[in-house]
């Protein structure tokens, strides 16, 4: 993929920006939350070292590809991380959305997913975006379905059954332009 995204952009209520090392404290807190890791096959919080490695991967993805997961802020306060990344295992860009539990229920996940889809199918010219959701995570499934994703198949991911949802470009174009 030879496209890139701006280092930051405003999308509705959300400021979406490239993550920096200064985001580490928030990321450590985010991935230490039981509510966030409860759907993992082994629902154990990340150590600070694992969060630092996650942040380094996210920054490295931006360096290599010119896009990746954003740090997400609302009114100057961090609320999560998410966006699209290159998938090594599946066809299509991989969507992710991790919001702090204190920010759940405000519609931020749907806004973040729609912004990621606009970026993926717009400047990044993706043909397909996938979302991987654990069976035990109905809230994430509802967000994907609300944004036009359809269940495609069950896959094994890190030793656990995971639902793979997909949204191809032609379908996104129909739902993003109701006049079409």
Automatic annotation (TrEMBL):
It comes from Mesorhizobium japonicum (strain LMG 29417 / CECT 9101 / MAFF 303099) (Mesorhizobium loti (strain MAFF 303099)). CDD domains: NAT_SF. This is Probable acetyltransferase. The keyword Transferase applies. GO terms for molecular function: acyltransferase activity, transferring groups other than amino-acyl groups. It holds the Pfam family Acetyltransf_3. Keywords: Transferase. Residues 14-170 form the N-acetyltransferase domain.
